[in-house]
């Protein structure tokens, strides 16, 4: 039995938890995920240790299985050219860069769609693309506080407490994977010519 997303190519411009969890799910369903990382440093989660698995951050490994990593300097013309080639052949682009970064790179939805009219574009942000908070960054613990989740966690007569896992980031990643998955059979398959 073939995995449902076999033949789907995902351009992964994500880091930390929500975006990588999304693209990990797509990879688990058979997609080929190409994770783009900064040269020398990579995804911030590479430094989130201990715990380690060998010499690697266990958190990074847990969120990035089934992926190929590609180190690209997106501030250089050569790096942007490689990213353009990747986006042209991808079925899905998922990005969770800091607010405004994707626009600075020239890879917002309109630009990606010009390169590849069939691209499924998923942008993961803390507060959405519109509204007064759209430019603010967001980490799971901030979202737990902001939404009131911490107020119902912990012990009576003590300060609000964080839920132990990154539950909002993981929920966001799961929903993002659901909405960015192409319908089964609609992606370019290895045995069909690509556009």
List the helices and strands and how they pair.
Elements: E1 9-13, H1 18-28, E2 32-37, E3 52-53, E4 56-57, H2 58-63, E5 67-71, H3 77-89, E6 92-95, H4 101-105, H5 109-115, E7 120-123, H6 140-147, H7 167-180
Parallel strand pairs: 1-2, 1-6, 2-5, 6-7
Antiparallel strand pairs: 3-4
Q: What would you note in describing this structure?
A:
- The chain is α/β, with parallel strands linked by helices.
- Helices cover 33% and strands 14% of the residues.
- It is built from seven helices and seven strands.
- It has helices spanning 18-28, 58-63, 77-89, 101-105, 109-115, 140-147, 167-180; strands at residues 9-13, 32-37, 52-53, 56-57, 67-71, 92-95, 120-123.
- The strands form two sheets. A five-stranded parallel beta sheet has the order 5-2-1-6-7, sandwiched between helices. A two-stranded antiparallel sheet has the order 3-4.
- A hairpin with a 2-residue loop joins β3 and β4 (56-57).
- α1 crosses α7 (167-180).
- It is globular.
- It starts with 8 loop residues before the first strand and ends in a 15-residue tail after the last helix.
């Amino acid at each position: 039995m073939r995995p449902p997303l076999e033949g789907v190519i995902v351009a992964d411009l994500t880091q930390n938890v929500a975006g990588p969890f999304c693209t990990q799910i797509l990879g688990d369903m058979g997609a080929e995920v190409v994770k783009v990382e900064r040269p020398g440093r990579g995804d911030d989660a590479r430094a989130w240790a201990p715990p380690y698995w060998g010499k690697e951050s266990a958190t990074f490994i847990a969120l990035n299985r089934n992926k190929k990593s590609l180190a690209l300097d997106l501030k250089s013309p050569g790096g942007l050219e490689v990213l353009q080639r990747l986006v042209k052949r991808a079925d899905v682009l998922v990005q969770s860069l800091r607010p405004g970064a994707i626009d600075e790179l020239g890879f917002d939805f309109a630009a990606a769609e010009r390169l590849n009219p069939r691209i499924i574009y998923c942008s993961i942000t803390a507060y959405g693309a519109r509204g007064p908070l759209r430019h603010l960054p967001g980490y799971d613990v901030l979202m737990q506080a902001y939404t009131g989740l911490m107020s119902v966690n912990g012990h009576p007569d003590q300060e609000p407490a964080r839920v132990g896992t990154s539950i909002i980031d993981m929920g966001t990643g799961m929903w993002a994977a659901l909405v960015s998955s192409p319908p089964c059979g609609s992606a370019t398959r290895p045995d069909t010519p690509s556009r």
